[in-house]
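subagent[fold] <- orchestrator: predict structure for attached chain, return tokens only, no commentary.
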Amino acid sequence: MISFKTYPILWIVLFCFGFPSGVFGQYIQKETVGGTTYAVIYSEGLAGAAQWGPGVKMMRNGTTIRHQFSKGNGGNLSVNDRIPFRFIVAPTDVENNNKNWMAVQGVNDGGQNQNPDFTTTANTGCRWYGTAGAPGAGRQWRVPTQRELQLMWMFREPIGLIYKDKPMEESGKTKRYWTSTEKGTDQAWFFDFTPGIPYCDTQAKSTANGMVRCVSDY
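subagent[fold] -> orchestrator:
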């Protein structure tokens, strides 16, 4: 059984990176799915060219499909081009500004290439989050794309209302969240959730100063 409550949002000027055209149609709901309460972001009000329809797979082999800002790695789907029809935001963070990009993905490679797939896995990050005994057990979780994480920042206040004990933005603290979106062979995008003025940029995938708020396809 699914129950939900809808939260409004005050739209702001976007300064980090742009959304696809026709972007202003998202909303967030508090839903109970399989006995667990989640924050679920929807993009169903967007034009078709701005959203991935239900059933489009964002994951392969336990991670978000590898991609750059505006293309897929190799012949991969360019998953950052659009926003999924809906996705679940995890109730808690994984780690605390202390992990590199590979660790939050749950892999041991990819830091020096832009291959279509990872070759070795690790029981860390979003891969670990869905395992038995972990906070997200029972679902598959992945690192959000750049566009998904920007949406999560825009909905940071209702996310904080839904997850009152584990908000994404906290007073007096900068939280550096990794995205799954790569830049070239050795860089990846991150987004700092800082009260006041947030910040986004790229840095070396090997830099161990980030964390992740995983998402799950739904």
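orchestrator: received. Logging for downstream: The first strand starts at residue 4 and ends at 7. Residues 106 and 151 are 23 Å apart (CA to CA).
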